[in-house]
Amino acid sequence: MPELPETETIARDLDREIAGRRIETVIITRADVLREVDAVALQRRVAGVTIERVWRRAKLVVLDLDTGDRIVVQPRFTGALLIDAGSLPEQERRYSTLELVLDDGRSIHYRDIRRLGTVTLMSPERFAGYTKNLGIEPLDPAFTAEHLSVLLRGSRQAIKKVLMDQRALAGVGNIYANEALWRAGIDPSREARSLSADDAGRLRNAIVDVLTESIALRGTSFRDYRDASGGKGAFVERLAVYGREGDPCPRCGARLVGTHAIDGRTTVLCVRCQE
Fold first, then answer.
1. Which of 131, 155, 185 is the endpoint of a domain?
2. Containing H/E element for 93?
3. Is 265 a catalytic residue?
4. Is 3 a catalytic residue?
């Protein structure tokens, strides 16, 4: 967390607000979030540089700079990119690890409470190498039922684990894997290779639908996730299974079951209607 809908929301917000702005300086307060660049080199390479666009790849927020470099942010559990026009709450500013000061007087803070996320400065070649092993984007038109069937074919792993493998499918994490499998009526522990073509079709549609709906509601906020303006995502109200262990299944009324047996992560399912 954040997963695809949350990072997509952040990237869209930032692209709308700061594309075309120049970075005046960088203020670094917690250098331990930096990867592949130190504070001095980061300041040298981005000061005076213009942000051309902001976009998402998998669970990454990517800032394209006019030098060809890219600032790549992986928020992980508690990271957020927040726009500050002078009114950022003190509780958010307290956990700022670095600040990009822009030419219009605003700043972008990378806030990370637990500092498990990362900020990396990459050349185009390094970015291509870094992302070459990422899987297909689930919102790409090329992600069809047939494509998913090929990904699953021959895999003995639990289907939920395959969905969360970023080398197979980019951007899907624990929340949306749980939700998509419930919507498709598929047991998360089933071997991936056991899914039929019809199963793959239902699952593909469920993945696309749940991600699209979550983006429309600006993601899911339990505690730490915030969009670029500091707002919470509203998809938490639409969650059918994730975080609802012990509640009745919205589809059949049976009690939802929680387990950590599949991949060490929380899995919530309905044993009656997920087969």
1. 131
2. helix 90-93
3. yes
4. yes
Taking each helix axis as running N to C, give the angle between helix 145-152 and helix 197-216, from 0 to 180 degrees, rounded to the nearest 10.
Answer: 120
Tell whether 138 is covered by a domain: no
Q: pLDDT tens digits for 10-68?
A: 999 999 999 999 999 999 999 999 999 999 999 999 999 999 999 999 999 999 999 99
Output the CA–CA distances (angstroms, integers) from residue 39 to 45, 113, 244, 247, in the order listed: 10, 19, 43, 48
Residue type, 271: V
Query: CA-CA distance, 79 to 2, in Å (whole number)?
Result: 8
pLDDT in tens, 53-64: 999 999 999 999
Evaluate if pTM is beyond 0.85: yes
Structural domain includes residue 88: yes
Q: Residues 3, 17, 99, 179: which is the catalytic one?
A: 3
Q: Which of 56, 57, 59, 190 is catalytic?
A: 59
Based on the residue annotation, tell me whether 2 is a catalytic residue of this protein: yes
| Catalytically annotated residue among 76, 126, 251, 265 | 265
